[in-house]
Amino acid sequence: MSDEVIVSVRDVHKTFTVTKTPGMVGRLRGTRKEVNRIEVLKGVDLDVHKGQTVVILGSSGSGKSTLLRCMNKLETIDSGRILVNGHMVGYEERGGKLVDEKASVTAQKRTDLGMVFQQFNLFLNKTALGNVMAPLQDVKKMSRPDAEQHALENLRRVGLLDRKDNYPSKLSGGQKQRVAIARALAMDPSVMLFDEPTSALDPELVEEVLAVIKAIAAQGTTMVIVTHEMQFARDIADIIVVMDQGVIVEKGTPNEVFFKPKHAKTYALLKRSGLAVEPPAA
Amino acid sequence: MLAAAPIVIQLALGAMALALVLGLLVALARISKSRILRGIALVYVEVMRGTPLLVQLVYIFFVLPAIGVNIDPVPAGILGLGLNYAAYLSEVFRSAILSVEAGQTEAALSLGYTPGKALWKVVLPQSFIVSLGPIGNYFIAMVKDTALTSVIAVTEILKTANIINAQTFETTQVYTAAALLYLLISLPLSRIVSALEKRARIHV
Questions:
Q1: Which residues of A touch B104 (CB under 8 A)?
Q2: What residues pair up with A193 in beta bridges, in sequence order?
């Protein structure tokens, strides 16, 4: 582990605006739209160092997935800064304000972040090998043989070489997720983002995916993982971050967070997953 | 009358090619961020679907010359059929594009595809597979609609039948033969379409 910061999050705020079509009463009154504003991120700071595995815990709605998705600008931010390798992804600063940068520049920067989704999102019309090869050819402009060789290496890393010619419809959930991991890894990103990688899996398939993620972490890959798997979090994390209602309420090593939780929310999470310890001194 | 069959194929293939390209462009315009593009595309679709194809063909062949645009019968037929079917195909493409899960685009973006490239390389190939069935059905419908071009002097099957009928008065035989000829063209087409659809749909 080094001091080099790969992802730096500074005072990030984000608000979701939900517009609802007005009901009959609203329409009669002439209300055009009902607007709900939800503050999902209320000033988040986080540093991810090179080689580190940071796990973000929190109940649903705490903003953890949103924070992850803001890192590669799948979600926009309202204010604050997120730097990846020293560069903002998706924005440039003009007169102290965030302005959208050119889509092609954002795309280029996104190759530095590999993302694994809850729903796998494999390209359905491509085989496992085709999925891993596609971005290598389309984005990295590798030749077909080079892309194929590189893709095969990465399928081997996730133990799916024998499934390379299967389409997603012929893969189990766990296998799909491992292909998705191989696809992201093959791009050689400087950080891997995992957005609840096992939440959509049948219980018996969770372990194979977690094992792959652990193996990758052991190879020194920098990662940020959003998960509900507490045991896994404790095993894999260098730093555990607990979020609640859009803010980070606790941050520390697994030992600190699991055995000496300082925040009531952390304790509640631990208790719910059967890993309860002494409640924090009030 | 058999000699008119190639004309029908020519009309249908030419018009379908035009309808596919234009239909895709219209579909992209309808889902674009630009209000102006969306507006133009919507007006196009509504006008083309809201007026009879027969009227559109007549318009192209008889009204356009009045403003100095003269088009030969076959190109006029291809143009009329193509413009009309583009409107229907654009709706097929639009719903097919929207049916591809947002996660596919997100995955592509996260891997460094630009939004345009994600659409072209990831979303469109999948929506095309979904569209194959409806496209095939419209193609078969178009083969039959080529009969309408008889009114703009295209010597296709129906026109030929009219001519033969005028000479021989063998009305029953002539028009039965014409109908059978259409059937002879469309039946194999529908078999090909369902086979194609079956093959393509296996994985998606």
A1: 121, 123-124
A2: A115, A224
